[in-house]
Amino acid sequence: MSFMRKIPVAVLLLIPMAGVLAQEDVLERCVVAMERQELECLKSGDYRQFAGLLAEDAVFVDSHGPAGKAEVVKNTSEFRLTDFSMDDIRFVALSANSGLLVYRLTESGVSHGKQFSARVYVSAVWAERDHKWMCLFSQETAAK
Q1: Domain 3-142 is in which class?
Q2: Which of 22, 75, 100, 118 suits a disulfide with 92, CB 3.0-4.6 Å?
Q3: Cα 19 from chain centre
């Protein structure tokens, strides 16, 4: 009896799935790392690098409504994180090179000269464009 005949069909069907799951895990780790890098830029004050992580056509939504990249970059010039944590992270692959990240962000810092602390739910879409990872969309919702 050949080796292949001894392997159950269900196992053979799972082998390609293992590759897909491994790719999705790598994709998730990449997207989470990019989101952390974006937050680290706001903590270190590297607004140039922060702006470089945002797609030109990106859309951001918060309690003030939607905003484009230029408006977000302008508003973050007077914003600085002192601490943050990402919890309850969830991920959905949208394609082989893009994904949706959802998590709870606990943050503190200074915004327009005033100390703040907040807990918000964040959703963000990241995609690889021309071999560079870019944030295409982000939304923050106040956590209760």
Answers
A1: alpha beta
A2: 100
A3: 23
Beta strand 114-129 with 132-142 is antiparallel
Whole-prediction pTM value?
Answer: 0.82
Structure-derived torsion over alpha carbons of residues 45, 89, 60, 111, reported in degrees to the nearest 10: -40
Best CA proximity match to 125, nearest among 105, 98, 104, 103 = 98
Domain boundaries, the chain: 3-142
Structure tokens at 30: 């990449």
- Cα–Cα distances (Å) from 122 to 22, 98, 143, in that order, read 25, 17, 10
Over 70: is that where the pLDDT of 13 sits?
no
Task: Average the pLDDT over 62-69 and give the result.
Answer: 94
Confidence bin at 144 (pLDDT 50/70/90): confident
Would you mind telling me the total number of residues written for the chain in this entry?
144
